Amino acid sequence: MLSGLRLMLLGLLVWIPFAAGAVSDELAAQLTRQMQVNQQRYGIAGQAVEVVHNGKVVFRGASGQVDIDGAARATPDHIFPAYSVSKLFVSTLVMQLVEQGKVDLDRPASAYLSPFRSCASLAVVSASKR
Questions:
Q1: What DSSP state is assigned to residue 28?
Q2: Helix axes 2-13, 25-42, angle to 10 degrees
Q3: What is the pLDDT of residue 36?
Q4: If you compute the radius of gyration of the chain from its CA atoms, what whole number of angstroms results?
Q5: What percent of the chain has pLDDT over 70?
Q6: C-alpha to C-alpha distance for 85 and 92, rounded to whole angstroms
Q7: Which residues pair with 51 in a beta bridge?
Q8: H-run or E-run covering 46
Q9: How does residue 41 score in pLDDT terms, banded at 50, 70 and 90?
Q10: Which of 30, 55, 66, 98 could be stapled to 72 by a disulfide with Cβ–Cβ 3.0 to 4.6 Å?
Q11: Which residues have a Cβ under 8 Å from the Cβ of 115 and sit 6 or more positions away?
């Protein structure tokens, strides 16, 4: 689980403005080196990174093992679980929609998500209060 979280953090660190088309050989080498540095620095067992710009894959890379105990090597096609890091992406996307005036944080989620329209309200219960 922890290696998946570290993989997602690595993905967040690779925000690079790309020109149209493919990544230059030099930039691909820099990304590969950064993956190696992050793997050593953060103890990442394995990682697979794909960078897409304007719908085109501009970089694919992988290093390490699929899991800590296994001997299977990670490949660019391996998908690691995102676990709770997906909340970071969703909250960022929602706030971008707020900035664009497409979402009002004071309205219920059911106003935007049709499967929840039948829910009058949703309650979040803290596990510590049970």
A1: H
A2: 140
A3: 93
A4: 19
A5: 70
A6: 11
A7: 59
A8: strand 46-53
A9: very high
A10: 66
A11: none
Judged by phi (left if over 0) then psi (alpha if -120 to 50, else beta), residue 92 lies in alpha
Within 8 A by CB and 6+ apart from 121, the residues are: 108
b/e map 1-38, b = 16+ CB within 10 Å: eebbbbbbebbeeeeeebeeeebeeebbeebeebbeeb
pLDDT at 120: 56
Q: Please, are residues 88 and 95 in contact by the beta-carbon 8 Å criterion?
A: no
pLDDT greater than 60 at residue 54: yes
Specify the 3-state DSSP secondary structure of 29. Answer: helix
40/78 Cα distance (integer angstroms):
20
Q: Which two tokens stand for residue 13?
A: 């660190």
State the amino acid at position 50 in one-letter form.
E
Three-state DSSP string of 42-69: HCCCEEEEEEEECCEEEEEEEEEECCCC
Report the C-alpha gap between 4 and 31 in whole angstroms. Answer: 18
Q: Is this prediction's pTM over 0.70?
A: no
